[in-house]
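Let us begin with a simple case.
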Amino acid sequence: MTRSLDERLEAAKHSLDASAVVAGLVNVGDQMSRSLATGPSVAYWRELLTARNAARDLLVGLEKRIEQDDFVVVQFGIPPRSASPMRIKYSHARLIGVEAYLSLTWSLADRVSGFVGRVLCSADGGAFSDQGAAKLVSHFVNPNDSLSKSTAGLLFDSIRRAFGWPIAVSYALRNHFIHDGGQQHEVDFFAGNTAIDEFKITAKGWKNIRNRAVTYNVLPDNIRKNANFPTTPEEDLRVLLNACEREMDEALGILLGSACAALSTHLSFLTGTDV
């Protein structure tokens, strides 16, 4: 990635603000106005990104922060002197951290995808609807989803082929943890529940994720050649999450930049003024 997602979000905010000033010169229509009104929301998206990064950092070295009985001390802020710090099982701390991370990851993806869809998708594909806003998988990755037909062909094909697999894996993980709690058909996802097991994934657990990702109609070769995606994801979920995050951030940055560029270019033609 030439720039981080946070930098791309900051650039998008500046682009939308500049476009909003120029848009005041002509009647740009309701859809353009709604799109440009997204500018103030970008600051909150950056807060989501910061929270996601904090959730990821909670997972780093978690297995090294245990006490002798395999409990983790959890503390937010400074508790009163009389209060004892909260102690929870390692497996619970791991589950809470992973679910928080995946929830924030996909909240951010939904917000960015919704804005992009408003600009780059067709009217019947969610562009005019906040309730049926564009989603990353349905509109930009899954070719068998009817909603993908509402996305510009060049954009859809390039995102799917370069980033489809890591996006699908992350989405499969999100659904597995948020909806299934990390267990499906009595198959445990993690290799064990103690700190010794760290974030190791069972063979059957990874197979469930892989099979779920394939249902979004992508393949493991739908990835950039230089992506360095883990070949043995069972060894550590955190390595897999980091790889998916890197690729998803790149895909979201490209989509965001494409949408902002389309807005500013269209405004330039409408007004005869460079944006």
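The second case is a distinct protein. As before, the sequence precedes its structure tokens.
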Amino acid sequence: MQHLRAHEGDFIVPEGMSFSDFVAQLVERLESEIAKTVPPEERVGRFEGVFFPDESFGLTGVTPTKASDEVFWGYRPGRFTPSRFVRGYERHPNHGVVLFGRWGKQGDLILFTLFPGANLAPREPGDSKLWSTRISSSERKEALAFWAKHAFIAEGEIEPCSLSEELEQALQKGDEKGLRPLIDKSRKTKE
């Protein structure tokens, strides 16, 4: 659930309710919805999905970018590898909620993260699983192509990554062999 903290500012939490209580209520609704739609025999392995597409849960976090945009690499809360950010964009309400998790041995859902939105973005360049042998070369190329043209909307202070320019150049060139060592080198130690 550590990844969920990176999305805390993306949700619109009702006034007077804590983020923890908001998430607990949302997870209850998700579990109820999943119980109706996913048969027990299919509750194995990874699970991801978009739910409640007609309801607004928060604000956009990712936007397409242009070559003229002010992009930089920095660290999202609770994350130890850098993400691509852009300044100068307004966030706006979006609909739906995206959930990532896996099924436990008893058919229970183990939640990794959830965030507002109706789209499943590909893994970020800093996601170690993107570089796994389980990910196909075409899936990796697709993810890198997506992130070369999209970024998180920067709000407030973002801890900058000292290798921002090098990361951006490698990503824009599609240089997988150059990008991965830069990601590894920019990894923060856990705080």
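The longest strand covers residues 46-59. Residues 19-37 form the longest helix (19 residues).
Keep these points in mind for the review questions at the end of the chapter.
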